[in-house]
Write the C-alpha cells for this entry.
Amino acid sequence: MIEARALIDATPRDSIQEFQTGDTVRVNVMIREGDRQRVQAFEGVVLKGRHRKGDTPAPGATFTVRRVSYGVGVERTFLVCSPLLDSLEVTRQGKVRRARAYYLRGLTGRSARIKERR
Amino acid sequence: MGIQGLLGRKVGMTTLYNEDGTVDAVTAIETGPCVVTQVRTDTRDGYEAIQIGFLDAKRLNKPAAGHQQRSGGRFRHLQEFKASDLSEFEVGQSIDAAVFEVGETVSVSGKTRGRGFAGGVRRHGFHGGPKTHGQSDRHRAPGSIGAGSSPGRVWKGTRMAGHMGNNKVTTRGLKIVMVDPERNIVMVRGSVPGARNTLVRIERANNNY
C-alpha cells in the first residue's frame, strides 16, 4: 500500500537551523511585493514546533513564533517545508519545560523571560 | 486518449507545495493500470462504451472469469466509461494515469464511510434540545416530527434517525493538480468521498474527452 505523504517531495531547506520550543528565532521569509521579491525577518519565541536535522517532517508540519510588537502580541505560523522560508537562525536557546509554551501568552515584561539553555 | 474517465483507489490526503509558495490540500488517487475488458458497440449492445477492469480479484465465479479471459486479467471491479472514439481501444489494452492532464476538471465518485444507525443531530445537523432549564432526556432529541390530527400522520421523507453513510457520493469540479504516470498517481485539489483504499470513479467534467 502506498502512503499519501510519501508521494510528496517536501523537505525543509538546509538553511533552517535546528530549533525547539522556547528558542528565540529569526525567520527570514520571502515576500512578494508586486513583481519584486524580498526577504523579511520575523523574530520571536517559538511557541510550538521543532526541527532537527535529518528529520522528515510531515508535508504540512508547522511551527508558531510569537513576538510582542508595539505592546501587541503577534503570532505567526509557518510551514516547516515551505519554499517561502529563506532561512531560520536561532538567536537564543531557551529553556522551557513543555512542548507547547502557550503559558507565555498570559505573561508580559519580566515574567515573560525564559532562562537560557546551555 | 478519448476516454471519459478511469477507476482508481483513494490513497489519502496530503499537502502539495506550488512553485509560488502557496499550498494545496490534495487527495492522491492511484488510477490504474486499468485494462479494457470489453468494447460495447452500437450494433451489438445498443450503446457505445469501454468496459474496464481494475484491481486483481481474489476469487471469480466461472461466468465472470470466462468474460474476462480475453483481456488476460482477473479483476475485482468492472465498470464502463464512454469514449469519443472506440477504435482507439481494444480488449486487453492497458490504460493508466497518463490519460489525465494537469488542470483538468473532474468529478470523483466514491462510497462514503458507513456511520451505522445515526441520530438526527449527526445525520441531519439537528440542534438537539436545551442542555439546561430543567430538561431531562431531551439533549439530542429530534423535536417535533409534524402537526397534530391534521394530517394525523407523519409526512413521508421526514428527516429522522437512521442509517448514515455507505452511499455513493460524487464530488464535482475537482481540479487535477498533479499526474505521475510512473506511479499511476493523480492528485486532485480538495477531498474525495470514501475511506482510504476504497474504489473511486474519476470522470471528466462536461463530457470533455
